[in-house]
Amino acid sequence: MFLELARVYAFIARFWREVFFPPYEFKEIIKQCYEVGVRSLPLISVTGFIIGIVFTNQSRPSLQDFGATSLLPALISVAIIRAIGPLVTAIIASGRVGSSIGAELGSMRVTEQIDAMEVSATNPYKFLVVSRVLATTLMIPALTMYTTLVSLLGGYLNVHQFEQTTIVTFFYQVFDAITFLDIIASSVKSVLFGFTIGMVGCYKGYYSSKGTEGVGKAANTSVVTAMFLLFVEELIVMQVINAIRGI
Amino acid sequence: MLEKVRNPNIDTSKKVIYIRGLRKAFDENVILKGVDLDLYKGENLVVLGRSGTGKSVLIKIISGLLSADTGEVNVLGQDVCCITRKELDALRLKIGFSFQNSALYDSMTVKENLEFPLVRHSKHMTEQERDKLIDTVLDAVGLRQSINQMPAELSGGQRKRIGIARTLILRPEIMLYDEPTAGLDPITCIEINNLINEVQERFNTSSIIITHDLTCARAVGDRVAMLLDGEFKREGTFDEVFDTNDKRVQAFYNYNFID
């Protein structure tokens, strides 16, 4: 247990030691950004849109009981921007990207491709880990913004269908309900989520063993561990933001 | 079974690898119990032994992938156990490592596999120079036509050849072959054996070939060393190694050549 923690610490510390110093693997970083960002767009678009519609639809009856359906845009805005947007994006990314990183690196480990890089005097950590962690850390916040926008559009369509609100009024209420702190908190969370997904996937893959069984295990534990950590981080960031707000 | 004619260019006054008292254990399991080994310049040394006797561990220690528990592992005048990361990387450029399963980067084409070390370590080269060098090593392994193929599209023998080409591209002084003929059909084995000898002649490399294939050992080895119980118990020419009453050595020979 303590040995494992020490290894995790060393793995993360190595990232910070290597990320700022050359050589920089720009080509690989761009390739990974494309894999993480662009390739996730179709899934994120559909999921975000559906979540916006479903959340709005499920919230309406509660507000109707108090005759407060006019507050729906504000409610959707706070829920999606503060929590649902970053969390849903991160969960989808950890399923799609985290598992793929874990499996890819795990497969490279068991087929000695990582050793092959090392014996050719190439730093496999820099090429494989730094590039992937940077890609997830940069692209998850971008995907979060995109998911938030798509979810709000889904929410708007539902609100428009039942309350005949115009898009201008809807988004006026959306932005009126959130503060600068909400945007900052959401951004910080998504950066943290991106770093976590990349780091967990890389760690599990980089240290995988036991052949094909190990590859499957690396992919699986990448997702499970990342998701667990995402919720823990969500809780911690929420507490910190509430403390800042004085709640 | 053809026996290799000893390479006349071997310089026995110059040791490129010098190992003394090498010991390596994994937990309680002691794999290497004080190995002594010399590799001379221009020589092909075959290391024989049963599975699990530490043959691959030995060359992984030589290339710095594993660290020794105790002992001296001197490669090209440097003790790999005591050098910095930067010095180890510089040393690794002079060592080519051909992996048992080739270890080609499966997300890259053959050309990208060969370019990978070049782009990082020969930055002064132009793209044309790189392409020319890639063509040269692909010609050396007889697979120029596969330049744009993915590793998954290649046969086992072709993958081995490309793996060897990738190590040759940095012009190493020492080649380490881990089970070069494992899992290949007899004809492809002969081709790989010939390639190992061609590499020795053409690139003037010194090599350690890890195998339990005696046909390979006889075809490529200038000298043969047999790893038994974590030590080199038999060493010499192929015939000298097997000219013994040691039951374990005889069993090894019989397993290879008698059904």
Automatic annotation (TrEMBL), chain A:
Highest taxon of source: Bacteria
UniProt entry keywords in alphabetical sequence: Membrane, Transmembrane, Transmembrane helix
GO molecular-function terms, A-Z: phospholipid transporter activity
Pfam families: MlaE
Cited InterPro entries: Permease_MalE
Segments traversing the membrane: 36-55, 75-93, 133-157, 177-203
An example Gene Ontology CC term for this record: ATP-binding cassette (ABC) transporter complex
PANTHER family in UniProt: ABC TRANSPORTER PERMEASE PROTEIN-RELATED
Protein's UniProt name: Phospholipid/cholesterol/gamma-HCH transport system permease protein
Species whose genome carries this gene: Pontibacter ummariensis
Automatic annotation (TrEMBL), chain B:
An example molecular function term from Gene Ontology annotations: ATP binding
Short name of any one Pfam family annotated for the protein: ABC_tran
Superkingdom in the source lineage: Bacteria
Name of this protein: Phospholipid/cholesterol/gamma-HCH transport system ATP-binding protein
Domain (ABC transporter): residue spans on this chain: 17-254
Keywords per UniProt: ATP-binding, Nucleotide-binding, Transport
Coiled-coil residue windows: none
InterPro entries, sorted: AAA+_ATPase (IPR003593), ABC_transporter-like_ATP-bd (IPR003439), ABC_transporter-like_CS (IPR017871), P-loop_NTPase (IPR027417)
